[in-house]
Design brief:
- This is Amphi-Trp domain-containing protein.
- It comes from Saccharothrix xinjiangensis.
- The chain has a 6-stranded antiparallel β-sheet with strand order 4-3-2-1-5-6, covered by helices on one side.
- The model has no long low-confidence stretch (mean pLDDT 84).
- Helix content is 24%, strand content 37%.
- The protein has one domain.
- The two termini are 31 Å apart.
- By secondary structure, the chain is of the alpha+beta class.
Length: 108
């Protein structure tokens, strides 16, 4: 795991420090993503889990709440979901970056 980043503030006012901590939190925020299962030939899909990518690891929770995963990356978490899905109807898994980046699909 990465060590916390300590950044010194130059702000001496409450307003200036508020802006500083908001910018810091946004810059250090993990990237949210979802793992989506595709069924059949694009017949339907469902979200299997949501996660956060911290750069050096990814944390994922299934939507059912019965499966939690810590992985090296979101891509590796996708591979683990692919291996553990057990549903023969699942044709493909998609890694969807929440926030506008296109999805990454892994065909089974």
């Amino acid at each position: 795991m990465s060590e916390p980043v300590h950044i010194t503030s130059e702000h001496k006012t409450d307003d200036g420090f508020d802006v500083f901590v908001n910018e810091l939190a946004r810059e250090e925020a993990p990237r949210p993503f979802a793992i989506v299962e595709e069924y059949g030939d694009r017949q339907y899909a469902r979200v299997a889990g949501y996660g956060l990518d911290y750069g050096d690891r990814a944390d994922v929770n299934s939507v059912e709440g019965d499966f939690r995963l810590v992985s090296d990356s979101a891509e590796r978490a996708l591979m683990t979901f692919e291996l553990s899905t057990g549903d023969a109807e699942v044709r493909q898994l998609h890694l969807v970056w929440l926030g506008g980046t296109p999805a990454v699909a892994r065909e089974r």
